[in-house]
Every structure is written in structure tokens, then in C-alpha cells.
Design goal:
- By secondary structure, the protein is mainly beta.
- It has five helices and 23 strands.
- It has helices at 2-6, 13-16, 23-31, 48-68, 73-76; strands at residues 81-88, 91-93, 98-105, 117-126, 140-141, 143-144, 153-160, 168-178, 187-194, 202-211, 214-222, 228-232, 238-239, 245-247, 252-262, 267-277, 290-294, 304-309, 318-322, 328-330, 333-336, 342-351, 358-367.
- The chain has a five-stranded mixed beta sheet with strand order 2-9-8-4-5, with no helix packed on it. A four-stranded antiparallel beta sheet has the order 1-3-7-6, with no helix packed on it.
- The longest helix has 21 residues, at 48-68.
- It is elongated and about 110 Å long.
Length: 382
């Protein structure tokens, strides 16, 4: 494999001439390091110009390859080379896709026959403080550009999803696998993720919910969050809450303005609208709905008496009951009978004089079955 890069003759060193005490004997025998000697040049004393212009350019690719496979040289050198890896564009805003392309080549050996490429994968790692890629086959798969794995040289492609990548610089490590299940060495491409482009805020619509003299406001927005809100209700003041609730002094039509901003520098969108309020004098919203029931331990087929109450608000009130078994009722007081034992959740909804402002209360009601006691009769057998 190394000979493919420098076009030297690969052979055991003793085939050239026998030496003793060489460092590759010791490093392999004592440390298990894959050890090689490159017999470089054509003379015992070589001119520096030959080293600089011929020997170094010819051997640099082989030495770089040896560095690349140094972790597992006897395994990795059987796999295909990953070449020409590139990310396009090399710099994208967070959330925008980028395209990764590379070439997997299993023909770059002097003697071993080439095999078809059957897979390729990539890992995205932080440029600074990156940890080594995971085990073979744990990366994100790439696809052959021609749609099938059927050649010893394959151009491969993948789309990089940057939505989960924080802004910064990344290494994209790429490798391929041949038909004998040999993964080759990594090559690297580089990716820069820029801060996401901020889409200016736009107010799609404003909705209001009127509860007597109280009105709740909400806006549907488009653009890149987070948003800053400024509601202006004239003499009634302003609010920076996303969904403010405003108490109006009486019936009428009131103007308001919503200003939403985002991005840096801020980009604003302004919405002006009106809200019509129909207040009933002295009709305060309902608060503090509560439930009482008797007896405290109801039995099936027995009558349960329910009583509803509120702590504040102006009536007349409407009481609506849901007894938890599909049945319903109305009135401040009502009764109900359960036909099955169990734990039922009873819900009470109380509506005020305006018919809009309501308060809801729930309470669990345990219903027990009848207990039958059989008398014990003592019989004299004598």
C-alpha cells in the first residue's frame, strides 16, 4: 500500500540486504509497532537538492498515509481510500443544509486486487477538542451518486443537517468500506456553522377573548424567535407580555397597538387594531368554584348530594356538573346515583352573569359497593 504512493519496490528488508540491530526489528518485536524502512535516493551521499526536489515530494504522500493508518495499520490499509472530501458550501447558517461529497477508491494498491465499494459514512466533530470518531459503522451513512454500489471507485454524497450544530468550526471525517468488510482510513473536510439567519418578525394575526370587561390578547407570529412584545392600550397603559389581559373601564371600542421585534439589530413589525367590549355593570368574573358532597362515603345506587359554591363574582351564576361517569347535571345543588363502584372525578363549571367568565373545580368522589355480612351459626353436633 505504501509502495503505491512512492512507487518504490515493496519487499522484506532482508531481500535487499541483511542487517542486524536495526530499529524496526526492535520496535516491532518489543512494542508491536508496524515498522518500515524506506531506502530512499540513488546514492549513499545524496545532494540536498535531490532530497528537496525529488525524494521528499515522492515520499510525502506515503508518509502521510502511514500517519493516517497508524492506529490500526494492518486492518485499515486493506480498506479503500477516501479522497477529495469537500463540504459545499463550506460555511452555512445554522439550520441550513450543506452537501458533503467524496470519492471512495479501492484501487490504490500495488498488488492486491481491487474490490467494490459497499458503504461510506461520516462523522461531524468539533474542530477544537474533537474526540476520535466512533466504531466502524456507527457514523451517518452516505449514498453512491450513481445510485448503486457496484464499482471499486465510487463517488458518494450526503446532506449535512446543521440544525443541531452550534455555531462554530467542525471536522467532517469520511471513510469507506469494501466488499470484504474492510473500512479504510479517514479523510477530513471542514465545515463552519454560522449563527442562524434571523427572519424578521411578522404579525400574522391578533386574537382577543372577551370575558366581561376583561380582554385577553394573543398574537400569531412568523420569523425567528425570540420575540420582544410591546402592547400599547393608550390611557390603560402598556405590556411586554406575549399574552396580556386588560381590564377595560366600560363598554366601548378601544384601539390598541402591538409592536414585535426580533433579530440584531432589531427588526420591527407593527399591528394596529380595535377591540369591542360589552361590559355588564356590576358583573365581576367568577372566582374560586368549589364542590361539596354528602354522604362522605357514598355507596352504589345510593343518592349523592352535590353542592357548588364560588368565592367571588357577580351572579346570577350558572352551575354545570359532570359526574365522571358520563352523566351531567345543573344547579347549585343536585343529586346523582352511581351504579358501579370506583373513584370518579366530578367537575363543576360556574359561569357568571355575563355568561362568559367561568371558574372550574374538580373533586374525586370514591363510591363503594355494599358490604354484606353473613351471620355465623354454631351448631351442636351431639
Amino acid at each position: 500500500k505504501l509502495a503505491w504512493y512512492n512507487n518504490y519496490t515493496p519487499e522484506q528488508s532482508s531481500d535487499l540486504y541483511i542487517t542486524d540491530g536495526t530499529t524496526d526489528d526492535w520496535s516491532y518485536g518489543e512494542l508491536g509497532i508496524a515498522s518500515f524502512t524506506f531506502e530512499m535516493g540513488t546514492q549513499f551521499f545524496q545532494a540536498c537538492s535531490t532530497f528537496e526536489n525529488t525524494i521528499w515530494p515522492n515520499n510525502r504522500p506515503a508518509l502521510l498515509y502511514a500517519l493516517t493508518v497508524a492506529d490500526t495499520p494492518y486492518m485499515t490499509s486493506y480498506g479503500p481510500d477516501a479522497l477529495n472530501a469537500v463540504v459545499t458550501p463550506a460555511s452555512v447558517p445554522q439550520g441550513d443544509p450543506a452537501t458533503l461529497t467524496a470519492t471512495m477508491n479501492d484501487t490504490r494498491r500495488r498488488y492486491d486486487p481491487a474490490q467494490n465499494i459497499v458503504a461510506a459514512e461520516y462523522f461531524v466533530l468539533p474542530l477544537h477538542g474533537a474526540t476520535p470518531p466512533g466504531a466502524p459503522g456507527t457514523g451517518t451513512p452516505m449514498n453512491p451518486q450513481d445510485g448503486s454500489w457496484n464499482n471499486p471507485v465510487e463517488n458518494v454524497v450526503a446532506t449535512l443537517d446543521t440544525s443541531a450544530l452550534a455555531p462554530g468550526d467542525y471536522i467532517v471525517a469520511v471513510r469507506g468500506k469494501d466488499a470484504s468488510n474492510n473500512w479504510g482510513p479517514f479523510t477530513a473536510a471542514f465545515l463552519t456553522v454560522e449563527p442562524a439567519q434571523c427572519q424578521p418578525a411578522q404579525i400574522v394575526s391578533v386574537t382577543t377573548v372577551t370575558l366581561g370587561c376583561q380582554v385577553s390578547f394573543a398574537a400569531e407570529l412568523s420569523g425567528t424567535p425570540p420575540f420582544s412584545y410591546e402592547w400599547n392600550f393608550g390611557a390603560l397603559g402598556s405590556s411586554t407580555q406575549p399574552t396580556p389581559t386588560v381590564e377595560f373601564p366600560g363598554s366601548g371600542t378601544y384601539p390598541y397597538t402591538l409592536t414585535v421585534s426580533n433579530c440584531e439589530p432589531p427588526v420591527q413589525d407593527v399591528y394596529t387594531g380595535t377591540v369591542t367590549v360589552s361590559c355588564l355593570p356590576g358583573c365581576a368574573p367568577v372566582q374560586g368554584a368549589a364542590i361539596e358532597f354528602a354522604p362522605p362515603e357514598p355507596l352504589i345506587f345510593g343518592t349523592v348530594a352535590f353542592t357548588g359554591s364560588v368565592s367571588a363574582g357577580d351572579g346570577p351564576f350558572t352551575f354545570t356538573w359532570a359526574f365522571g361517569d358520563g352523566a351531567s347535571g345543573t344547579g347549585m345543588t343536585t343529586t346523582h346515583s352511581y351504579t358501579r363502584a370506583g373513584l370518579y372525578t366530578v367537575a363543576l363549571t360556574v359561569t357568571n352573569c355575563a355568561g362568559t367568565a367561568s371558574s372550574v373545580a374538580t373533586r374525586p368522589v370514591p363510591v363503594s359497593a355494599y358490604t354484606i355480612y353473613l351471620p355465623i351459626v354454631a351448631r351442636n353436633r351431639d
